From TrEMBL:
It comes from Aphanomyces stellatus. This is Aste57867_671 protein. It comes from the Eukaryota. Signal peptide: none annotated. InterPro entries: PEP_carboxykinase_N. GO terms for biological process: gluconeogenesis. The lineage of its organism: Eukaryota, Sar, Stramenopiles, Oomycota, Saprolegniomycetes. GO terms for molecular function: phosphoenolpyruvate carboxykinase activity; purine nucleotide binding.
Length: 374
């Protein structure tokens, strides 16, 4: 009883901090332990506000970048709307482009390079994340993410990559991950490494340091998809255009930008396709590189439906290509050559660097293989 009395007198002598509450809300009764706590004194520099989400600061996107070993310290735009991206892209074109071929790199030096590039991209003022897919049909689709410091590249990829419903989930596993650092001064690099993590997820990582030609990037991405699919894959990844005329499908290899401009009305896919023997031919990309003179930029009532061609060089631009997810099996396959002649499926595959899956598909569907002087 004596101890209780001493405690009550001690509590009574403790000054109660004033509290401001609305008249309609009853003030909570503080506990005696709360009354004994000292008033916290925190230096002003440690009092901060939690950042609000904006187009350039999305918490889910930032967390997904952490899975890619990137910690964005500034703006990070994911699949930015074209009507916002196009003006920025025009003001920051890519520097000198170089021709290069992606080379495999052993895991140890690749990891060193990877860490250097991820650190640079994490400190980039404006980071651009392009999420999409290679392959329009779900049966042959492979998700891809490209993280870059270039709005010009993001603009191009927005017109080129396949847009799929899984884009809504920023944490969708992406078997192909590309890092593109164009603004640095370090030595150029164009290398990749394919690795399987402890969870059994196989991912192909491609590092581009210094700007490379778009056709080199496209070829590298198609090659990575082919390697990820494996030698036993039923579908054949081909670096070909797909032309559909009067219901007949034709694969065209080694086509030029001028040839694509001439066949725009019948072009179902450009730069790559995936031929599944049971499904048909699916576009690998949903965009096309055309000469500037062949670009048709039609006005739309809303920015959402407006086309925004992406200038890639002084001669060419990348535009979105409306195309079906899949078309019928090709009746003819054509490759440019010095003379006109028919060849066997095996000979044709050798001419275009095709896989055994391409030979099997050509033979299964009795596709006519032609070398043509274009």
């Amino acid at each position: 009883m004596l101890a209780a009395g001493v405690l009550r007198r001690a509590i009574a002598r403790v000054p109660v901090r004033s509290m401001s509450t609305a008249a309609s809300v009853a003030a909570p009764t503080p506990s005696w332990t709360t009354l004994l706590e000292p008033t916290p004194k925190v230096p002003r520099e440690f009092i901060i506000e939690f950042p609000e989400e904006t187009e350039a600061n999305t918490f889910e996107v930032n967390w997904s970048l952490a899975d890619d070993d990137i910690t964005p310290r500034h703006n990070a735009y994911r699949n930015r709307a074209l009507h916002r991206l196009a003006p920025v892209s025009a003001a920051a074109p890519l520097a000198t482009l170089r021709a290069a071929t992606a080379e495999p790199l052993h895991v140890a030096p690749f990891l060193d390079l990877w860490n250097e590039v991820t650190d640079v991209l994490g400190n980039t003022k404006d980071l651009y994340i392009s999420d999409g897919a290679i392959g329009a049909h779900a049966a042959v689709r492979t998700s891809i993410r490209v993280v870059s410091d270039s709005p010009a590249l993001a603009h191009v990829l927005s017109n080129l990559l396949v847009k799929v419903p899984s884009l809504k989930d920023v944490h969708t596993p992406r078997p192909i991950l590309v890092l593109w650092e164009s603004a640095g001064t370090a030595s150029p690099a164009f290398v990749y490494n394919i690795d399987t993590n402890e969870d059994g997820f196989t991912q192909a990582k491609l590092v581009v340091r210094g700007a490379v030609h778009l056709d080199n990037l496209v070829h590298a991405i198609l090659s990575l998809k082919t390697q990820l699919d494996g030698d036993d894959a039923a579908a054949a990844v081909v670096a070909a255009d797909v032309v559909v005329d009067n219901g007949a499908t034709t694969l065209v290899f080694h086509a030029t930008a001028a040839a694509r401009a001439a066949t725009q009305a019948t072009l179902a896919a450009a730069h790559g396709a995936i031929w599944h023997p049971a499904v048909g031919v699916s576009p690998a990309f949903q965009g096309v590189v055309l000469p500037h003179a062949a670009v048709q930029n039609k006005k739309a009532k809303t920015p959402r439906h407006q086309t925004f061609p992406a200038p890639w060089s002084t001669e060419h631009a990348v535009v979105a290509l409306p195309s079906p997810n899949v078309v019928g099996h090709p009746t003819t396959a054509v490759v440019a050559g010095a003379a006109n002649k028919d060849v066997s499926a095996a000979e044709f595959a050798a001419l275009v660097g095709g896989s055994p899956a391409l030979v099997a598909a050509l033979e299964q569907h009795k596709t006519k293989c032609v070398v043509k002087k274009l």
